[in-house]
Amino acid sequence: MTEATVTAAVATLVAAPEKVRPADAAALDDRPGIGTWIAAMTPEEQADSDVVTQLLFGERVLVEEVRPDGWARVVATGQPAPGLDPRGYPGWIRAAHLAGQPAAGDGAPLVVDALSTALARSPGGPAAVSGVVLGTLLTPAGAAVDGWLPVHAAGHADPLWARTDHLAPVPAQPPTGDEALAVARRLLGAVYVWGGLSDLGIDCSGLVHLVWRRLGVELPRDAHDQSTATAVVPRGEERPGDLYFFARPGRRVHHVGIVAEPGRMVHASSVAHRVVEEAMPPERAETLVGAHRV
């Protein structure tokens, strides 16, 4: 088994290559076009696919198998999935979206705080990697120059350059609920996409995972695992930044939202087909199973 690093700004992980649809071609191209992929799908295709999650630039994976047809079976160690694999989220990714690990960094990692940015070949120069998204971790490779910071980048022999005003330190302290809610609100309007993990398209548990990733906290990727990794809050005592979980009778948790105030939440809604902030709809209230705190 080897380790590798994601070189695409946003790479797509699927459950089985054999189930990939023609509609997924743009996401799986050697230079994936996530926006093109999402725009070309119908709402039904966006909400129902074999995509399990997405990986962001620089994420580490364990590579278990590489097939001659260019598919690699991996485990994404930064996206916990205890119900699937104790090491991380398992699935298949295009081998073209992976490379060996970059050099060790020259300082503490930074996190992308812009919804989208580019990594340039030189300060202010042409983009080498476009569409690097909120929550991506980058490791400095030297001192800043004219508002640009060199960062290590897998798949590139030389450091790439990121705008310093698009970066932030990874928080050293646990975030407050208000901080989490503020990040979630920045994603309002993002399209609902099953398995999505960026402002281009995201699902309910992806929203929760990405918000806390931006704030330096590693939460599981799926809603049912998020519910077991967080602490139950008595109903009526929930506060902004807590989580509402939803499940049908006798079934495991299938949906999650971020509390804006009691009875109101920010969530990636498959009904509205967007990330929305709204009072809890009656059909959601019927399946509410509790509030939790990270």
TrEMBL record:
Keyword list, A-Z: Hydrolase, Protease, Thiol protease
Stretches of the chain forming a coiled coil according to its record: none
Cross-referenced InterPro entries: NLP_P60_dom (IPR000064), Papain-like_cys_pep_sf (IPR038765), Peptidase_C40 (IPR051202)
Residues covered by the NlpC/P60 domain: 174-294
Pfam families: NLPC_P60
Transmembrane regions listed in the UniProt entry: none
SUPFAM superfamilies cross-referenced by the UniProt entry: Cysteine proteinases
Protein family (similarity comment): Belongs to the peptidase C40 family.
Annotated protein name in UniProt: C40 family peptidase
Lineage: Bacteria, Bacillati, Actinomycetota, Actinomycetes, Micromonosporales
